[in-house]
Structures are given as C-alpha cells and as structure tokens.
Design goal:
Helices cover 72% and strands 2% of the residues. The protein contains seven helices and two strands, in the order βαβαααααα. The chain has a two-stranded antiparallel ribbon with strand order 1-2.
C-alpha cells in the first residue's frame, strides 16, 4: 500500500524555496521505492526547469511527479515480464510433455508440467535442466522471450497506455511552462517599447 512519506523540513530546503514548500505535497511512494531516488529525480527536474513563479513551481512539481511515474511504470513492466517467464516456461513445457499423451493421462501430465515450471522458478539446478531440455527441442532464450510477451500482451498494453499517458501529460506541462514564459517576454517587450506620453506644451 502506498502512502505519504514523512520528511523533515530541511530535506526540502536544498531544492524547493521555502515560500513554495506548501505547494509540494509529500510523495506517494510504493513499498520498495527509495525516497533518495525520488528526491534526486525531483531535484534534477527543478534545477533544469528553474521555476520562477508559484505557477511554474506547481507545473514543475507535477512534471517531477510524472517523471517518477514513468520510471515506476518501466520498473513494474520489467518485473511483470520476469513474473510471466514462469508462465512462458510452463506453456513451452506443455508443448513438449503433454503433446501426444493419451487423453486419460493428460490431466496428470498438466499437473506435472505446472510443477516443473514451479521448480524452474525455485530450484536453480532444476532450472538448468529444464532450460537444457527446452534448448534441445529448439526453444532458446529468444523463443521464451517471445512467449513471455505473448502471455503478458494484455497487461503490457495497459502499462504502455500508462506510460504514454504520463509522457504526454509531462510534455503538455512543459509546453505550458514554455507558453507562460513566452507570454511574459511578450508583455515585458511591449512594456519596454510603449511610447511615453508628453503633456501638451
């Protein structure tokens, strides 16, 4: 379960000016996520954008949060692929071990295949033996990788949508900061070139 991380005030001071600290809520980190890594990402983005106003700080805070989300989705996506590898091994073993088995023995063969896939995950010696047997039948690492993506294709599509959505929102916020600064430059430029009015002599 995720929740706000309690931080001392001085941890904000090096990056976020004191007058804008109320704009930045505590980060909502998941178990296993590192607050130092989060602050490093946040600080790098703040230094790159160099916000100059409260509105710019609000946008920069959201950009930092979205950047962390992008990293989070990539890590979770990688872990998802690793988790689906057992399923890919199971499906591939089924093609070898269950094919041709008489109908009355197929249920036993299925259970044996599931157990072998679990052994592959938990027992390194069993994993080496199973992988050697898969290679013997022509199922190398590339074949397993393809099977992983086939098994995980639906959930991978969800992660792809999350990644694309976060990246698009981040680009829109960056564009908003650029538009704000362009508007300020235009206003300042007009102010500098406004002709003075002189009283009638």
């Amino acid at each position: 379960m995720n929740g706000p991380v309690s931080l001392h005030q001085e941890q904000f001071a090096s990056v976020l000016p004191s007058q804008f600290q109320a704009l930045c809520p505590p980060p909502q980190l998941l178990p296993g996520e590192n607050i130092e890594h989060y602050r490093a990402v946040q600080g790098a983005i703040f230094r790159d954008i160099e916000p100059q106003s409260a509105v710019e700080w609000l946008l920069a805070i959201d950009i930092a949060e979205l950047s962390w989300e992008v990293q989070r989705y990539r890590v979770l996506q990688h872990r998802l692929l690793r988790a689906y590898r057992q399923k890919a091994v199971e499906v591939t073993l089924r093609r070898i071990d269950v094919l041709g088995v008489p109908c009355h023995l197929q249920e036993v063969a299925e259970i044996h295949t599931i157990k072998n896939a679990l052994d592959w995950q938990l027992d390194p010696s069993a994993a080496a033996e199973i992988e050697a047997r898969l290679r013997f039948y022509g199922f190398d690492e590339h074949a397993l990788n393809m099977e992983v993506h086939v098994q995980a294709r639906e959930i991978l599509a969800v992660f792809e949508a999350l990644l694309n959505g976060a990246q698009l929102r981040r680009l829109l916020l960056l564009k908003e900061i650029s538009n704000l600064r362009q508007s300020k430059r235009c206003i300042l430029g007009k102010g500098l070139h406004t002709p003075r009015s002189y009283p009638n002599s």
